[in-house]
Design a protein that fits this description.
Length: 1065
């Protein structure tokens, strides 16, 4: 065997003392047969992985000693290159945070603040990138890791628009189209990205960067957040990638089918492919350390992946490309499959290697790449695990070109099926049609024209739902199924046929607002044949964990298998083997009862169930049914019902209740698809129960403003770019000293002061007016205790009032709960997780929590379970903060829930704006959450007394901040409490358009303002108590050197009886 000539040799050895390992240098013309499956490359398209095996190295080393000087020269060159790269990294090092501007095709801008190597406001950035691509102003770029299906992807993209001729990369054949101002180096620097992407989009819609060798500069330096770049990376199982065949691999290690054990070991020991992906994604190539690669290295790879617009999984590449095309508004391309060896691809990687020791060795060396790939599946555009059990029908990924045929309130003729509704559609398709239908159904229900219908699967909370709905209007007696006043024109059978749905729903709404269809037995006709899209029908279904459902006790189950507590092993086995409950839910939802096949039920069966669930107006999760019914009531403009809970869910898990792992696993296996359906349904549920369980629940989700949880939403909605002031710690320390020094005569110790306050605070709670002297004394002790570690800092977070921004800042200061600062794993067992606290438990809870955290947050999107006035806000162990916000700006906070209900703001029709304005769920949103009797819900009829109740609570908080200048407020708070200033996300994207201009209709604006007048008055009044006076900042009516400026308010309510003259700046 002869080695490659010297001209083709590159550098691979990392140690000059080792045998030199010749390697074929990387070429800029990768093999055109690089498919998502194993490639069959020609010898003249060599990759960077091409290396001489050990025996060839020995032959080369011993054949001629004359090569030694040349090896030394190569080693010296390698060192020079390494030094050069290090120097480049040092020279091009950038600030940790990058501030840029994103613009969509309309020219509207939104400031974005992106931390290099940290999570970015991904959804907002992606939206602009996608919008610009569709407008022809953004370039689509594939970051192609060799053997990650780059050629397949390139071929598909060439069908959809112009791309470079050779492998979608720069080639001499493209010299006429390629912008003359650009060379073909890659990757770009941050400063080059925008200009290069704009220039290239004029010639191409798609470009690929292939990295077989290590990138010459770090990929993280690219401005992946550029509004003119849509980036894609294809991820692949690292072991399958490692086994991808090409000519060079076969040349040095033999063909896979005939590879000897020695060749397999040489293949396994080859260092050029260790953690191949991670090594190319990270700036310091940290993945090269194999099994010793650190967790920090893995996290660097994850951070980069988060910044790409899309991730596709090679395991289901065809479906991913179709979904991507739909996202970008492109037709579906024909996806050419790669060259495969069918016999090999029916085998696992372990079977292909055929030696467990070698297999485990490769796995161990590539452990971090495997972890990165598994993690990336969570960000993949298509979840392959949902598709791979059986071949996926193309219809599941078909883009409906007639999506715009919908006439709101009526399904167009092109959609009406002859015998059944429309077939399954692409799960990634634009949901505007469904949202329009849903909006009309809700609108008609509020007008008394649509019927509310629960599809009640037995043991899915149907009785609880029925009892709640009876409180809100007329429903059939008994179990809400049928009643004595049932219209004679409406049949009592269920379900209805497609053509009779409209008329039956109309007729029933004349009598009832709600009915229920219970299905314990299998429906006599398929549920899919009901016209669920009828504008006269609001449908919902309650989903439940299938194993919990299976364990629901009733008389029949007890009669057949005994009481659960007394059930013998023989009875448990009979219970488990009972065929009548296999995939109970799926069997009732699907037309052919396909779930009955248990563990043999197909993915196609599961997809039928999903497709039906998508057609219901709402899905609730029984795990948080009370919150779901409250959210449903808000959606439909109903009062909140008193939910009578059932016998209660046991605290034991299903596995513990069954008490036998074999039986439990047997039941799980038989009900596998029901379990998958339930888990999938959570993504469509009106309320996310898991967020409630974790304490990370955006209470406004689908309730009031129906806000999606987005950690960047607060920062994006507001721009805190007001004139900065130097709030030095010394100035605030001086203020604190003056407070305490002037109190020294009457209060010698905190203990004495605390005792006095504790006695006084019992009287303060229910007073109409708090004595100012008492308030300042209370605040002084609270602040001092916080500084000494004896008081907890608590934010009362009204949803969309910058709680996420506040939380992020406090995490820089000290320990906080990990879940949006609401709840965490370290939460003391002795402290309840409910909020708000009762008066008598405030002290104890605050003391216990301060041992773990310095700061927590209580978020209130929905109305508090108990009045906020009941908390002991005067506790010396609690420093309370609330952030106030203009109620109209809050009302216009954009999120997924609002967009689903009323359309995107920039696309909202006049009818949608009217519905938005009339929505009752957000009337006086702040006042309604602050007052014990929720008096703000009366809108323009809200009384002055209600407003005063809100003011009285605000006076009791330690601090009030104004979101309009939140950065400055947090800086001032830091000075007051004596901690270092946190990093603040300045320049965070406030719109330059007023609320009136955004609404675009003076009459609607005045209507919203009138309905929220008391909230507006409360906000304006609160500015007098705000720690920082934002208006003074805006008007620039201050001088940083002037001791008499009034940036920090000293309103009458803040008069300092302890000697503070108020001039602290």
């Amino acid at each position: 065997m002869t080695s490659p000539n010297e001209e083709s040799l590159g550098l691979v050895s990392t140690n000059c003392d080792r045998d030199f390992v010749p390697r074929v240098s990387y070429r800029d013309d990768p093999d055109e047969n690089d498919h998502n499956d194993d490639d069959d490359d020609d010898d003249d398209h060599d990759r960077d992985e091409r290396v001489l095996p050990l025996h060839a190295r020995r032959e080369t080393h011993h054949a001629s000693r004359s090569s030694t000087p040349w090896q030394r020269l190569v080693c010296a060159a390698r060192i020079t290159i390494v030094v050069s790269i290090v120097g480049t990294l040092l020279v091009t090092g950038k600030s940790l945070f990058h501030v840029g501007e994103i613009r969509d095709e309309s020219g509207a801008s939104a400031e974005h603040d992106v931390a290099a190597g940290s999570a970015s406001p991904r959804d907002e950035i992606r939206a602009v990138q996608i919008s610009n691509y569709r407008a022809g102003k953004a370039l689509l770029l594939n970051v192609h890791i060799t053997h990650h299906a780059g050629t397949t992807f390139c071929d598909a993209m060439k069908q959809l628009g112009p791309a470079p001729a050779f492998a979608c990369m720069r080639d001499d054949r493209d010299r006429d189209e390629w912008p003359p101002s650009l060379d073909h180096h890659r990757p770009w620097t941050r400063d080059e990205t925008d200009g290069n992407a704009i220039a290239l989009r004029k010639a191409y819609h798609f470009l690929s960067w292939e990295f077989g060798i290590l990138p010459p500069t770090p990929l993280k330096d690219v401005d992946w957040e550029s509004p003119h770049l849509v980036s894609v990376i294809l991820m692949r199982d690292p072991l399958e990638r490692r086994l991808a065949a090409d000519a060079t691999v076969e040349k040095y290690f033999g063909e896979e089918e005939s590879r000897t054990e020695e060749e397999w070991w040489e293949f396994a020991e080859y260092e050029g492919s260790v953690n191949f992906v991670l090594t190319r994604l990270t700036p310091d190539r940290c993945g090269e350390k194999g099994e010793d690669t650190t967790e920090a290295c893995l996290e660097e790879g994850k951070e980069l992946l988060r910044r790409f617009t899309y991730i596709l999984d090679v395991q289901c590449l065809e479906e991913g490309i179709k979904a991507l095309s739909s996202e970008l508004g492109l037709p579906r391309p024909h996806v050419k499959k790669g060259n495969t060896n069918d016999s090999l691809h029916q085998m696992t990687t372990r079977e292909r290697i055929g030696n467990d020791e070698i297999y485990d060795f490769i796995v161990k060396r590539n452990r971090r790449d495997i972890e990165l790939y598994e993690w990336s599946k969570g960000l993949s555009l298509v979840k392959c695990s949902e598709l791979t059990s059986t071949p996926v029908d193309d219809d599941l990924l078909h883009v409906d070109d007639d999506a715009d045929d919908l006439e709101i309130g009526n399904v167009s003729e092109t959609e009406q099926p002859t015998s059944q509704p429309t077939p399954a559609k692409n799960p990634h398709e634009d949901t505007s049609k469904h949202n329009a239908i849903r909006a009309m159904q809700i609108h008609n229900y509020k007008l008394g024209r649509a019927l509310l219908l629960n599809v009640h699967i037995t043991h899915h909370g149907g009785t609880t739902v029925c009892n709640a709905m009876k409180q809100l209007g007329h429903a059939p007696e008994g179990a809400c199924n049928r009643g004595d006043d049932w219209p004679e024109t409406v049949p009592k059978y269920r379900p209805w046929g497609y053509d009779e749905t409209d008329e039956n729903a109309k007729a029933l709404r004349n009598v009832y607002h709600f009915i229920s269809w219970e299905f314990g037995i299998i429906p006599p006709t398929p549920l899919k044949e009901v016209k669920w899209e009828s504008p006269n029908l609001v449908s919902f279904i309650v989903m439940k964990d299938p194993i919990d459902r299976r364990l629901s006790g009733d008389a029949t189950t007890s009669k057949l298998f005994g009481e659960e507590a007394d059930r013998t092993e023989e009875q448990w086995e009979a219970f488990a083997k009972y065929d009548g409950s296999i995939n109970f839910m799926l069997t009732r939802l699907t037309p052919d009862h396909c779930g009955e096949e248990g563990e043999n039920a197909t993915i196609a069966c599961l997809e039928h169930g999903k497709e039906l669930l998508r057609r219901f107006t709402f899905i609730l999760d029984i795990q948080c049914l009370e919150e779901g019914l409250e959210a449903l009531a808000n959606e439909l403009g109903l009062p909140i019902p008193d939910v009578k809970k059932g016998r209660g869910r046991t605290s034991m898990s299903a596995r513990e209740r069954i008490g036998n792992d074999d039986i439990y696993d047997f039941i799980v296996g038989r009900n596998r698809l029901d379990l998958e359906l339930y888990e999938w349904s959570k993504s469509l549920s009106l309320v996310d129960c898991s967020a409630l369980d974790e304490g990370d629940f955006d209470d406004d989700l689908n309730v009031a403003d129906a806000g999606d949880v987005d950690q960047f939403s607060d920062a994006i909605n507001y721009n805190y770019t007001l004139n900065a002031t130097d709030y030095s710690d010394d100035k605030f320390d001086a203020e604190d000293d003056s407070v305490f020094n002037n109190q020294s005569d009457s209060k010698s110790t905190n203990e004495e002061l605390g005792s006095e306050i504790s006695l006084a605070s019992n009287n303060i709670t229910n007073q109409d007016n708090i004595n100012i002297d008492d308030r300042e004394s209370i605040r002084a002790l609270q602040i001092e205790n916080y500084k000494k570690g004896n008081a907890l800092l608590l934010n009362i977070h009204i949803t969309h009032h910058a709680g996420t921004t506040f939380c992020a800042a406090m995490k820089h200061v000290g320990n906080t709960p990990e879940h949006a600062c609401n709840n965490g794993d370290d939460w003391p067992d002795s402290v309840t997780q409910h909020r708000p606290w009762e008066y008598n438990e405030t002290d104890r809870n605050a003391i216990e929590l301060r041992k773990v955290y310095h700061f927590i947050s209580w978020e209130f999107g929905k109305k508090p379970r108990s009045p906020l006035v009941d908390v002991n806000w005067e506790s010396p162990h609690l420093v309370s903060v609330i952030v106030m916000k203009d109620p109209i700006d809050r009302r216009l906070s954009g999120d997924g829930g609002i967009n689903r209900m009323f359309g995107k703001e920039e696309e909202r029709t006049e009818e949608q704006w009217e519905a938005f304005a009339k929505y009752d769920g957000s009337i006086n949103f702040m006042l309604t959450r602050l007052t014990p009797d929720r008096c703000g819900t009366e809108g323009e009829n809200t009384t002055e007394e209600c407003l005063e109740t809100g003011k009285e609570l605000l006076r009791r908080f330690t601090y009030i901040l104004d979101v309009k200048c939140l950065d400055e407020g947090l800086e001032a708070l830091a000075g007051e409490l004596g901690f270092s200033l946190p990093y603040l996300n300045k320049d965070s994207g406030k719109t330059q358009v007023s609320a009136r201009e955004r609404i675009g209709d003076d009459e609607l604006y005045e209507f919203i303002l009138r309905r929220n007048q008391r909230d507006f008055e409360l906000y304006e009044w609160s500015k007098g108590l705000s720690l920082v006076n934002c208006s003074a900042l805006e008007e620039e009516l201050f001088d940083d050197d002037d001791d008499n400026n009034d940036i920090i308010n000293n309103d009458d309510d803040f008069n300092d009886s302890a000697g503070n003259d108020g001039n602290v700046l």
